[in-house]
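Long-time lurker. I teach an intro course on protein structure, and each term I like to show students one example going from raw sequence to a predicted 3D structure in token notation. This year I'd like something fresh instead of my usual example. Would anyone be willing to generate the tokens for the chain below so I can use it in lecture? Attribution to the forum is fine with me.
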Amino acid sequence: MISALRLAVVTTHPVQYYAPLFRQLAERDGVDLHVFYGWGGAAGAAALDHGFRTSFAWDVPLLDGYDHTFVENVADDPGTHHFRGIDAPGMVAAVGAWRPDAILVVGWNYKAHLQVLRAFSGRVPILFRGDSTLIDERRDLKGQVRSLARRLALRWIYGHVDHALYVGQHNRAYFLAHGLSERQLSWAPHAVDNDRFADPGGDPEAEARDWRRSLGIADDQRVAVFVGKLEDKKDPGLLLDAFLSGRSGLDHLVFVGTGPLEDELAAAASGRSDVHFLGFQNQSRMPVAYRLGNVVVLPSQGPGETWGLAVNEAMACGRPVVVTDRVGCAPDLVRPDTGRVVPAGDVDALAAALAAVSQPGAAEPMGAAARDRIGEWTLDEAARRIAESARSLVPA
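-- Reply from a regular --
Happy to contribute to a lecture. Here you go:
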């Protein structure tokens, strides 16, 4: 009989995207999972999110269904916004005491994570998961010099990794550029809990219609929704400009989220009854929020839009998507039948794409195709592939 694979996961803090994946892994036959966190984050008590500029606790379960340990974080300023924000001196000892057969490290750019990579390399098989890309590399001479220096450093870091789990095409190219070989790579999709965003009973659609009407939006009007942090990286101003140009074919624009650009955007839309700022909405409300629109837009200019899981969520809600070419998931998820990809910063291209996707008769079939497409990117598939990759590294 094959003994259960003891798989340790080292990650920063409980988040809404990874908790269901960990539950899926823990439920798999032959896997004994334990997650080691270096910070509490917004699990339980409210914590400050630097991007949203507000404190909150997620209202979906983040710790149910899998074993986990919080290792003490001694950082003066704990959080994921800087390298020393995840500083857990006891992490290596805690993981070692659990005696894992393999270790999955999620991201390297935190002090505790780098310590784990260095401590266990060559002793315990190490899998790595991250979603970095080469999208934001500068092409000028200064950028090339910086990229070369960074690439040399990253080759040293990834030299501690036995196998990397890439989430999509851009991420795969990144790992290959930093010294990992084809045989060291496996696909494990970036996925969300599609079932939570599905609408089997019709309730989220009905709630969204009621919410639209409360905002003064008629059932037959064309609406675009932006969901995320109102920050430079995501370039919500480009979307507002496309809408205000009058060429987008839209009747209303909805922003769901908060962030440093909120006041600036509100000032630019001052006096407009067709631009709506709904503020931060917690996770239980998101299946309704996405359905406020006929199309969901992620107009990011970067740097750092390595994937864009809001796209997964929107597609699971049956909504077509319009994204820029700086969004990491674009080549994997966005096809002519599920949405449009436009150049970052191009307001005319964005307006034209919105007009095409939201026109009568277009959004509904594209939304159905989007739902079908995202049905191939599931947590179950991700968990299966992670478990298989970990098992392949452990001697029989």
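Some talking points for your students: The longest strand covers residues 5-11. The chain has 15 helices and 15 strands.
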